[in-house]
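A favour, since you know our structure tokens better than I do. Just paste the record in under my message, thanks.
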Amino acid sequence: MPAVYPRRVGRYVPNMDDLLGLSASIIASGDVDKPFNRMTNELSEVADGLAVVESFSHSVVVDTGDGLVAFDASHANTGEAVTSAIAGWSSDPVRHLIYTHGHADHVGGSCAFHAAFGDMTVVGHENVSRRFERYRDTNDWNVLINARQFGGVRADFAMGDGGDAAPNFIPPETLEPNHVVGAGEVLTLGDKTLELHHARGETDDHLWGWMPDEKWMFVGDFVIWNFPNAGNPQKVQRFPIEWAAALRDMASRRPEVLLPAHGLPIGGADRIEMVLTDIAGALETLVAEVVEMMNAGEVLDTIIHSVTVDPDLLAKPYLQPLYDEPEFVIRNVWRQFGGWWDGAPSRLKPSPDAALATELASLAGGAANVANRAAALAASGDFRLASHLVDLAGWAAPDDAVVHGIRAEVYRERRRAESSLMAKGIFAGAMRESKAIADEEGA
């Protein structure tokens, strides 16, 4: 049981989970069945003056002796629950809200923070406001791709305002940073010293924090208890090289408590160093192999089906490919250094998908033949080839209920076979797309 510290308000009841003990047990045993990415909206005190509210994105809170500082505001849909948990822990207000980066699940709850605690200093990297502007310019696109990314299961979290008829990806009232950080800054907050460092990783606006006296490190999404989100197929460029370098920098400081925005906090300098260097090494090896093959003149298709990550690394609780996955990171490395063309001449200026599909379906004796062959391949477990064929069948026969019924079933089964949430979400989107056609045309 975590210690109960006397300075907290009377109604605070500590979470019965010892988070540092739980994470140590999971890392030591490799037991991936224990929960380590939880969204309870409950607060746990990790050390004297340090607490975590586990939510869609966590909020990590420090008592500075002169008000609280919170790292991240969680999502718009969870912000009120998070602030209630914080208020149940301390009667002091949050005076500083620090965005580790500008993703919706880290900033959307800022409206609730303002409602609960009033005006505060909102700290963010200089690129956060540019991100918000991009989100406003591409609002509908971001709502669409996030609904697809989460597979319809958590579609309410694909948007910032809870799923209204005309949703906003982030709420219009989301607080803008009023204290802007560039490469880094040292803040004195009450009796605490906090270093903020900028590094590119999942985003170009990421800050990580370091309290050298306490040896507490606040890493945002640099550690997510999953394989790094460095390859998201629907999002802007990620930066795996800089990500790995930031992790090496963090490890060199020998933190004793590491506090991510997703997953459990981790205690112990040696354990933390192992986690950080394992993640860094996985990214570094993957990037090095991709770049080596690019330098040798290989095309993307060859690289995707050749470069892998050590399965023993991927089996570790903090590196499982359950959200993003290495294959997607390979594509992002290619995009960063090689542009959008994949090296196949026919795909430089391709025919429309429907035109190619119609021609191939004609050669095969009809779209139904192509779809049936896809179903047979899926039944044998060859989902990659089955997906090519069933897409061709669907494009050649866009209104055929039978063809789209087969396509829906192929993608239903492929979704079940995938490990990463991103792949599951996209394949579920294809399934729903064809099921709607099959249901409508077959009615």
Q: What stands out?
A: The radius of gyration is 24 Å. The longest strand covers residues 192-198.
